[in-house]
Amino acid sequence: MPDDLAAPERAPSFPAPGGQLPQHWSKCFGCGDDQPAGMTMTFVAGEGLDVTGRLEVAKKYQGGPGVIHGGILTTAFDEAQGMACMSLGTAVVTGHLEVDFARPIPLGSVLEIHARIDGTVRRKVYTSAEARIVSGPTADPDAVVATSRALFLTVGAEHFEKVKNFVDGTPSSPFETSSV
Ligand SMILES: CCCCCCCC/C=C\CCCCCCCC(=O)SCCNC(=O)CCNC(=O)[C@H](O)C(C)(C)COP(=O)(O)OP(=O)(O)OC[C@H]1O[C@@H](n2cnc3c(N)ncnc32)[C@H](O)[C@@H]1OP(=O)(O)O
């Protein structure tokens, strides 16, 4: 974490504390409602540059016997820390993300992930988050079961220009075929 972190303003477009965040993209695997395979995470704004996300740990997310797959948990952190960046009012993408898995997370549990912006340097947005099991098997809202740190980069609309024709998984341009 750099020493010269700036503390950004909360964007006026960010929901009031306790308010539900909109999906950032309906086909997103993490939060979209137009993504049948997705995790349908939901998010509530915190008091500052932070959010609390919720994930129901479905059977299909199994990695080891009875527990969440580490990649799914990593995805949940990516989504939560990205959604915290919504408080800046600009689009971001993940540059780097690391996770510490502290406790097993059983299938059937409900996770809450509290994620925040720690500060910014130019386009770099430093974030962190913790996960807790708030209901279901082994629930203990005081116990942190995993933590994450991630670096996001703010991007403009041009970042998505080259890939925008692939949103439905069917390349239409420049290849004009779905076999590519
Ligand atoms: C995703 C949809 C967003 C929709 C937006 C709606 C608005 C809502 C807002 C918010 C909600 C968002 C919710 C999202 C949740 C999910 C997010 C994901 O999963 S995103 C997919 C995975 N990530 C990628 O696909 C990136 C692929 N990588 C790239 O495109 C580039 O590498 C990119 C943009 C990350 C950086 O490339 P450069 O050319 O723009 O920037 P350079 O000049 O290389 O770096 C700028 C600074 O960042 C540092 N930097 C870059 N990458 C770094 C890294 N990996 N580690 C450390 N530093 C890094 C560099 O050292 C440089 O630092 P110095 O300013 O010079 O100090």
Descriptive keywords:
mainly beta; globular; Thiol Ester Dehydrase, Chain A; binds ligand 3VV; 1 helix; six-stranded antiparallel sheet; 180 residues
Can you walk me through this structure?
It is a single chain. By secondary structure, the protein is mainly beta. The protein has a domain at 42-166: Hotdog Thioesterase (Thiol Ester Dehydrase, Chain A), CATH 3.10.129. It is built from 1 helix and 6 strands, in the order ββαββββ. It has one helix at 70-84; strands at 42-45, 50-56, 92-101, 110-121, 124-135, 144-154. A 6-stranded antiparallel beta sheet has the order 1-2-4-5-6-3, covered by helices on one side. The longest helix has 15 residues, at 70-84. It is globular, with a radius of gyration of 17 Å. The termini are far apart. Mean pLDDT is 93; it is low at 173-180. Ligand 3VV binds next to α1, β3 and β6. It is an enzyme of class 3 (hydrolase). This is Acyl-coenzyme A thioesterase THEM4.
Based on secondary structure, the structural category is mainly beta
Q: Poorly predicted ranges (pLDDT <50, ≥5 residues)?
A: 173-180
> What order do the SSEs take from the amino end to the carboxyl end, as H and E?
EEHEEEE
Which whole number gives the mean pLDDT? Answer: 93
Strand order of the largest sheet: 1-2-4-5-6-3
CATH superfamily of the domain at 42-166: Hotdog Thioesterase
Small molecules bound: ligand 3VV
Individual helix count = 1
Rg from alpha-carbon coordinates: 17 Å
Largest beta-sheet details: 6 strands, antiparallel
Helix content range of the residues, please?
A: under 10%
- At the first level of CATH, the class of the domain at 42-166 is Alpha Beta
Shape: globular
Assign the CATH topology of the domain at 42-166.
Thiol Ester Dehydrase, Chain A
Distance between the termini: 41 Å
Give the strand content: 25-35%
How many distinct beta strands?
A: 6
